[in-house]
Amino acid sequence: MSDDGTDRYDQRAPDEQGDDLDRVFGPETASVPTRPRARTWFVIGASTLAVAAVIAVVLGSIIGSVQHGIGGAFPDPDTALDRFDDRVADLPGVVEVRHHAASKTAFASYDATATVRADPSLGAVARRDLVAALATAAEDAGGNGVRVVAIADLGVLHIGVTADGSVAAKRLALADTLDHIGGVTGVRCSWERGGEASDDDADQSVVVETPGRGAAVPPIVARVTEETQKVFPGASVEVIAEQ
To answer: Phi and psi of 146, rounded to 5°?
Structure first.
């Protein structure tokens, strides 16, 4: 069979065909090795999971730090009360410190309250020193959206304590005065029970216990009211039966 050269002219070498494709469509059309589809999706999935894991660890660390008061972003009443405990546990006369459920006072503000039970045999000077120390501890332990307040349980006297030591001292002095009124067996001088802690005069609440009955009660009410209004104008006064 004769060969006139026509077939050889039409048959182009593979390299020549590749060159033609490069010239027309660019070099990207050249044949390149590709990964199998399953392997590609595996790599993408693994990479996504790795990134998600890193993000979860970082967010968990940030949230955990914030919840424990690190970074100053969100209030943590429990941590504030722990700081308060550290400052008052070894004060002279302190017997016990009890925490109460924090009360929310605003969007990101809380009152963290503790009751500090003291030796009821403390003298007048020791009680003044203790109340002053509790006020300082409340100021030091608060912050970051948390206000620390306390009730000083001094036996027959219960005194509200905030970071304002001068107001706490006035409460203690008033309670001492009321305790010396005939027929009075217990005094609570603080803000309204169950209400938001306040140092304003009109927000103070004085509750006095007495075993008296009948005609003996009005004179006690009158004297307690008079003494209270001298110190805290507008404060509420209540005289109740001894419990």
So the answer is: -120, 130
